[in-house]
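User: Here's a chain of 523 residues. Predict its fold as tokens.
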Amino acid sequence: MKKKCNVKKIKQFIKNNKIYIILFLFIYCISCCLPLTGDDWGNYQNISLYDSFRRAYLGYMSHESRWVSRVLITQLVYHKWLWNILNAFCFTSIFWSIIKLFDLQNKFSKMLFAISMVIIPCAMFAQVYAWVVGSITYLFPVAIILLYMTYLFKLGKIITRKNLLFIILTNFLTSFFVDHMAVVLFFINLIYFVFLKINKEKITVYNYIVILVSILSITGVLFAPGNLNRLATNSEFESLSIIGKILFNIPNLINYTFYANLVLLFLMTIPINYFFINILKRNYGIKYILTTVFNIIPIYTIIKLSYQYNIFSNLESAISFDFYFEEANFILNHNIGYIFYIIFALTYFISLLYIIKDKKKKNNYIILLLIGLSANGAMLISPIWGYRTAFFTTIILYGLTIAIINHIMNELKYCGKDLNLILKVILISLILFYSACFVLIARFDQNRISNISLQYKSKNVSPNNIYLKILPLKIVHNYNMYWEFHQETYKDYLFHAGIINDVNININILPLQSIKGIYMYEE
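Assistant: Prediction complete.
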């Protein structure tokens, strides 16, 4: 009887958490298929935990502040089987946290957010999901911070003596994954403090301790000797005033927050359109002009994207497919582009205030939006931008936008059954698409490694030369070693993996004309 009950509980658990299990298994499978890329090659060494901490300390003193992520990198790159599990776990925990924070409990919201997580900008996908070093540095802290936010804001946990040590360690260690995440954590703790004040909750000495730890952590990040050395290499940027840095980075802020992500931009127009249609019910002319203006960039981008790419021709072109259109960045080169996106962001915020009537929910969404924007806001004074640095902001904006769309559907009393079917088909198609891509990538990498070994042992090939085929990838970060630095680290990787026993070789890159078949070097 007990066994039957256990089986029943397991079945019920699987049924209730089906989408989480699917996403975990999906990310785990593609993680297993992923080859080591870029900076991974230079970190592929079997070293002790003590040596990992020693290297992290040397890095902290010389060229970076990210000592926690550095410790994990030196261990997980070599023990990739463990990273495969952790990568899938972090992805799934991000999904779970956003579902909780924004109350995305129905099937429509869950599936739309799952699709959104998969079709983030292609470069972001490559840098955050499909790269061991990038995943540890950017995905892991986002997962921890979102769980921390859920713990405080959604589960309503207060800071007590029992959980103080846990919260202090979470804040301190997570701050040293990557610089702008330390700023986000400080901002979360500050907003939580204000949140307690507004709600007239009791503020204890433990809250002040957490704020102090957060201040010390962000100080340790920003003024790390390695961080200061790294910033010194960007002397021209560092010579600018705070205002000068912000003005310099406005195009980056606009690009990485809005324009780089076509799907997010399109979804954000839905609440804006709904706002205009409802607020201007009788002013048809103004209504249609405004809705046209605020849809013109997504429509233009989709048309240009469809024209440039034929993504259904074969898998080779599909791998090169991008989910945003880089050449349309012409708008960023004009002041009108800056003004448009400022107006777009303000209108989106106003639409949030208009659509969400419940005061408590509205306040929660505003808090989450401010926290989400704090990540990209912190980057305004940084000389280094990238798709990976915008991941946290992108995920928060997706969650908020889907929550607003869900609220619109409830107001319209639209259950969305037909949309659910469409979303299910899209989600399954994307899973199959990416699975096929990464199986192909795994096969290519295995063939390339085998071919290197054959060349190295062959008497008909010069022992000082290795010829490599390349793969035209966008969904895997830095797979092809175009830079001299990566060629050197790739040789070190081959040496430590036991594929070659002498790093004094030359790497010669051969163009790959077709994915279909030509993997091996032909003598």
